[in-house]
Structures are given as C-alpha cells and as structure tokens.
Amino acid sequence: MFDDEGFLQDPNRWSPALAKEVAARESLVLTAEHWEIITLLRNYYQRFDASPAMRALVKYSSQELGPEKGRSIYLLSLFPGSPARLGSKIAGLPKPHNCL
Fold first, then answer.
1. 81: left (phi over 0), alpha (psi -120 to 50) or beta
2. Mean pLDDT of the chain
3. CA distances for 99 relative to 18, 29, 90, 94, 96, angstroms
4. Which three-class secondary structure state does DSSP give residue 8?
5. Which residue in 68, 92, 99, 100 is the catalytic one?
6. What share of the chain in percent tops pLDDT 70?
7. pLDDT tens digits, 40-85
8. Which CATH superfamily is domain 11-90 in?
9. 8 A C-beta contact, residue 11 and residue 92
10. HSE-CB of 46 using CA atoms within 13 angstroms
C-alpha cells in the first residue's frame, strides 16, 4: 500500500482516515488549516497530474488561498521540514519531483 518512504502507491486509495494515520506517524495532529492545504494539494494533483514541488505549492497556495497562506513560512508551520513532501505524503499523493 505504501512505498519505502511512506508514500501511498495508489492515490485512489486515499481517505481522510488514512491521512490522519499518516499524519500521526509524522507526529502531526491535523487542524482545519492542514485540511485546507491537503485539499489544495489533492486539487493540484487532479489538475496537473503531479504533486507540486515547493515553489509550485507556494505559488498555487497564493493563487487559490491568498497571499498570507501562499507563503513558505506559513506552509512550514503546518508541514515542518518540507511542506510539499510531507503534505503530499499525508494527501496520499506521489512524492514530488525535486524533493529529497
């Protein structure tokens, strides 16, 4: 079900309950702000058939949610380390390209 790095192998098998499990493994408790970004990530994937790298995530967040939520510092506060990578993992998406 998951690859060696913990990414869901089939994004169609994702569910909110699964997201909570993955988040718990990453020591995160999901808030409404997390869910807003998770939904944004899933919408991005549906639209572009790819998980966004950090720069694309920041730009897309700004376009869709406004400039305050489209800042890397905001995204880092929700998904520490690498928001694009961690957010995509919790959203049940493939690992973004250009993410270590």
1. left
2. 95
3. 22, 23, 15, 11, 6
4. strand
5. 99
6. 98
7. 999 999 999 999 999 999 999 999 999 999 999 999 999 999 999 9
8. DsrC protein, C-terminal domain (1.10.10.370)
9. yes
10. 8
| Residue 92 tokens, joined | 């049940």
Could you give the C-alpha distances from 50 to 23, 26, 36, 67, 72, in angstroms and in order?
21, 22, 18, 23, 20
Identity at 98, one-letter amino acid code = N
Q: Please, how many CA atoms are within 13 Å of residue 82, restricted to the half-sphere of its CB?
A: 16
DSSP state for residue 2 in the 8-state scheme: B
The token duo for 2 is 């998951």
End-to-end Cα spacing for the chain: 21
Q: Is 96 a catalytic residue?
A: no
Q: Is the pLDDT of residue 99 over 90?
A: no
